[in-house]
Amino acid sequence: MIIPTVNTLTMTSRYLLLVITLCAAFVHHVLAQSELEKRFAANVSEAQLRATVWELMPFGHRMGGTQHGQRSAEYLVEQFKQHGLQVTVEEDRERLGFVHQQWELVVEAPRGMSGLIQNEWLAGFSPSVTPSSAQVMDADVEGGITRERAQGKILLTKRAVTDRLYQEFVRLGAVCVLSYYPAREGMYPDWAFITNLRRSNENSIPVFLLSYNNGSTLHRLLTEGESVTMRFSAQTTISPGVPQTVIATIPGERDSYYIVCAHGDSDSGGPGADDNASGVAGLVELGRVLQGMITAKELPRPKHSIAFIVWADEYASAEQYVMRHAGRLDKILGVMNYDQIGAGVTRNCIYFESNDIPHNEKLLRTLNAIGEEYAGMKGYWDEATTTPSQGGTDSYVFLPDYLKRLKLPAVEIPSVTIYTAAWNEVRTLPQTPGWSSRAWKGHPDSVVVDYSAYYHSSLDVPEFTTDKEPSNMVWAVKAVGVALLRLAW
């Protein structure tokens, strides 16, 4: 039998005391962090988010380098300054932009169809045209339409008006084009899918984009042998301008920093409430709440700075940023990009992309843990999951392959996108192995990505998107805010 000596008991007691002290410190830290996250979440305002979207709407498509973009940038500078953030504006290279002042598209004959056209849109970079009337012809007839039938006519097509198709219609002598792409029943039934012509001030005829129901009605009339005449006009400005990217900063103790960003323009050229006034609203609200807590001394200054960036033009402005800051890319600890956080048709889910990029793992594990911890709680999402890459948004500009394309150092910057809907129909993706979330209610080996019925459309307006489920924007602000509390502090 070994009898413990006094020294042995003392050492054991010290060890136990150390363990108890460390455990108590850990519990205290966890409780303090949890309380901090609750206080942050309680400050997020759904009403403020909705108001910001509505205040952005009168500025039009907010394209960088246009008067719409200029007004939007001025508004955002004022908002961030009011909330106490440090604000700078960076100018991109000059590029061509467009503004539609007004347009008209009306059925003149048959007279009973005069009120048919609703929620149409004028394709971006369509030229101005004085009020004119012309007969409508079906451009999708078997074998193709001849120059004899197309000359001086308005051509109706269910196809997307690519540059090649546009040039063909111009060559045939058309004076205007009507497109109701995508011509699928149930898609864009009463609102138009928006596309743009090539970025040029030399496009010669306008393209009007119609809803499926309007386009199919016109097609039916023509198929039945009815003579259809329409009046159209457009007043547009196509000119070069300098896009302005707005950067609001919460300075940290170190020169390393996180970026939270969103493209400020409606990249479709339409109203863009969900895509992407919702993302901009989320950015402004996140900055407001965090800076407000610092000002109220509920939060100390962060260890790492946080830059809230509203890109003047999706992709183009993010490219300009990384080229301007090429020597400091290694100071970026992570990029969290908001894109379409204001809608969703089939699920109450928040998504974090891209989990197939290995160096995104630490950032995504943090977001995924937040998604799992808060799922189902009052004021939060029902589901949360990470997803593989889908492309099509600014976060990809910061990834090594894209940086190499820009002839920049291929720095491994964790770069992810947060959203609640994407594209215009449900997409099912195979889940990246090892990334199944406990907060996902679907099959663990796949991800069903929710969509917006109004994606890139003439009715991407608050009444049909961000006002229907404003809680989506709240979720996105809470998820990224909690992530920053865990990472930047």
How are the strands of the biggest sheet laid out side by side? Answer: 1-9-11-10-12-15-13-14
Principal-axes shape call: elongated
Instruction: Estimate the mean pLDDT confidence.
Output: 95
N/C terminus separation: 52 Å
Task: Label this structure with key terms.
single chain; alpha/beta; 17 strands
Gist?
The protein is an alpha/beta fold and 489 residues long. It is 33% helix and 23% strand.
Report on this structure:
This protein is α/β, with parallel strands linked by helices. It has helices at 6-43, 46-56, 67-82, 147-150, 163-171, 212-223, 273-295, 316-324, 361-374, 400-405, 471-487; strands at 86-91, 95-109, 121-122, 129-138, 154-157, 176-179, 207-209, 229-241, 244-250, 254-263, 304-311, 332-338, 349-353, 383-387, 415-419, 427-430, 446-449. The two termini are 52 Å apart.
